[in-house]
Amino acid sequence: MKFRSLIILTSFFVFLSCQQQAQNIVIIDAPTFAEKIETTLQPQIIDVRTPDEFDEEHINDAININWNGNNFESEAQKLDQSKPIFVYCKSGGRSHKAVEKLKELGFTDICELDGGFMRWSSEGFKSNKN
Q: Residue 50 belongs to what domain range?
């Protein structure tokens, strides 16, 4: 009987530890996104727009991994899954799809910019152009 209780108790703790490793995926507004970037050591900021859109203007220190390109998955796998990742696109459609793919790839801490770069820009946050 004690052995069975021990197995049940162990299973319970394993279940809880797996729950604690659950993915932390959040959609956040531009001020919160900016604050989290500022307070994260070496943030991984991913712009999933096209290279032309990225070249026009982007968030400082962002890298471009084109969601519509042929190598999104292979480029995303080069990132550090143990660190937070910040994702945005123009208005939110592509970034939402990219976040879903990043979850499938094993990323566990993902922040998505609500309203995308359009919201970021309209609220006056810094980019490579200002």
A: 25-122
* Residue-by-residue pLDDT tens, the chain, 130 positions: 554 543 443 444 434 333 444 568 899 999 999 999 999 999 999 999 999 999 999 999 999 999 999 999 999 999 999 999 999 999 999 999 999 999 999 999 999 999 999 999 999 999 999 8
Number of domains present in the structure of the chain: 1
- Residue 64 included in any domain: yes
Which residue has 């991913």 as its token pair? Answer: 46
Instruction: Report CA torsion sign: 89, 90, 93, 94.
Output: negative
Residues 127, 121 contacting (CB under 8 angstroms) = yes
> Which CATH number goes with the domain that contains 41?
3.40.250.10
